[in-house]
Amino acid sequence: MRVRDDGSSMMTGEYDFDLFTIGAGSGGVRASRVAAAHGAKVAVAEEYRVGGTCVIRGCVPKKMLVYGAHFAEDLEDAQAFGWTIQGKSFDWIKLRDNVQQDVTRLEGLYGQTLSNHNVTIFNERATITGDHQITLASGKVVTAKHILVATGARPAIPDFPGNEHVITSNEAFHLDAIPRRILIAGGGYIANEFAGIFNEFGSKVTIANRSDTILRSYDAALRDRLLQISMVKGIEFCFHAEFEQVEKQDDGTLLVKLTGQDPREFDVVMVATGRVPNVEGLGLETIGVEVGSKGEIIVDAFSKTNVDYVYAVGDVTDRVQLTPVAIREGQAFADSVFGGVEPYAVDHSCVPSAVFSHPPIAAVGMTESEARNQLGNIKVFQSDFRPMKNVVAGRNERSLYKMIVDAANDRIVGIHMIGPDAPEIMQAAAIAVKAGLTKADFDATVAIHPTMAEELVLFK
Ligand SMILES: Cc1cc2nc3c(=O)[nH]c(=O)nc-3n(C[C@H](O)[C@H](O)[C@H](O)COP(=O)(O)OP(=O)(O)OC[C@H]3O[C@@H](n4cnc5c(N)ncnc54)[C@H](O)[C@@H]3O)c2cc1C
Ligand SMILES: NC(=O)c1ccc[n+]([C@@H]2O[C@H](COP(=O)([O-])OP(=O)(O)OC[C@H]3O[C@@H](n4cnc5c(N)ncnc54)[C@H](O)[C@@H]3O)[C@@H](O)[C@H]2O)c1
């Protein structure tokens, strides 16, 4: 018999749960549900809202705003197609509240899925307080044979005087009004997606990035195309710009001093300068779980930490910060530990991704420069075209598709697209790249005409 700190006792080798998951986001929910389906007794703790970043303040509400924003262009373009639209106006509060209503609906569904699988949900913060031991914010102490850390990440806020006046993507979903002038710091996914959203809603948008490169992991030609289109749409870019100071003025506006620039006024300043793993105060040091320089939990290919019974998945491990990846890691963990199968690892190569900018970008595999560096001899096919809809609409906005082929064996090693519906088209194309198909396989496929996607099988 072993006596715990709180005075209760348990038999050695017996635990309250087979699995205790900390964090009910993309990775944690999938792992908990699947482990329970495999017969494990599972509990999950969530300190905020079940669903995590993606459902509550990430991919899902963001995509709804992207849809809402794009109507600005569609309504304008509709006129060239013969439509007269009178009295058009935009009601932010209506969109904001409709989006939040759907987020709440989804939160309920995620909770239901867990309950239907008999997963115990603790709606409170959890901390690791000893070997196999978790303490909840209420003071309740539980034990578990396995612990899964799936606590995600949060926005990194740069250190500068006045940084208490900035917002992050978390708050952007709840604004009381669309700002007249917004400064967005960062040049990555979130900065470019929200720049597009606010710009379509009529804000004057300025992006300030510390380097001169936006979306650095994407192919240079697509990055340049997005930059050029964004500028034509009215988004302003300040490069090599970092915050020196943000000062709140008497009228509530923010006076911002960026490096190399004169001070300027904005109504809202939003930072989108990356995300940091949520490990503070989690008690990892209590049991000796190893973390890296950014606080990310170090795991092996099977998402196992250096402590035998502790695993970690998703953004807290800072591998690939995308929802489908967190979900796969959660699934692989649950199958491997509770499913009675040979442990298997998630393949982090060739992960397709998208930026929901206006227009969106989508990519899979190597960029042209990565392929040149790694393979040497490559072939690059490119289609630079104006989508039919844009021609009729008089919208001078061109799409760009690129295919990168290994010259040694004709295998497609990368596809990159910017243009309407690029992420929708890419999902299918990514299967072909992942499967190792060749340019000849694409050429052998008959086009669907007239589409934008047909460019993929018509590269010359
Ligand atoms: C604005 C934005 C847009 C995005 N858009 C996309 C997109 O379009 N496509 C895409 O694939 N990805 C997107 N992402 C990334 C995606 O949201 C994340 O990669 C994904 O949510 C990671 O899942 P996770 O399970 O690791 O963590 P999360 O989903 O963040 O879940 C972690 C959960 O743990 C909880 N938690 C933390 N600490 C504790 C504790 N001690 N006790 C209890 N609970 C705790 C948190 O409250 C949170 O709910 C976006 C992210 C943001 C911020
Ligand atoms: N569509 C999607 O799949 C999607 C959408 C949003 C977020 N996400 C995920 O969330 C993660 C975080 O997104 P993010 O946009 O915050 O990060 P990011 O890593 O994509 O971009 C961060 C940007 O901030 C810049 N930066 C860093 N410090 C700065 C400073 N002090 N001043 C000015 N600029 C600075 C960097 O140069 C970089 O351009 C992404 O890496 C991505 O994995 C994915």
TrEMBL record:
InterPro entries: FAD/NAD-bd_sf, FAD/NAD-binding_dom, FAD/NAD-linked_Rdtase_dimer_sf, GSHR/TRXR-like, Pyr_nuc-diS_OxRdtase, Pyr_nucl-diS_OxRdtase_dimer, Pyr_OxRdtase_I_AS. The keyword DNA damage does not apply. Its cofactor is FAD. It comes from the Bacteria. Its EC number is 1.8.1.7. GO terms for molecular function: glutathione-disulfide reductase (NADPH) activity. Residues 18-330 form the FAD/NAD(P)-binding domain. SUPFAM superfamilies: FAD/NAD(P)-binding domain, FAD/NAD-linked reductases, dimerisation (C-terminal) domain. The keyword Flavoprotein applies. Residues 351-457 form the Pyridine nucleotide-disulphide oxidoreductase dimerisation domain. Keywords: Disulfide bond, FAD, Flavoprotein, Oxidoreductase, Redox-active center. Belongs to the class-I pyridine nucleotide-disulfide oxidoreductase family. This is Glutathione reductase (NADPH). It comes from Erythrobacter ramosus.
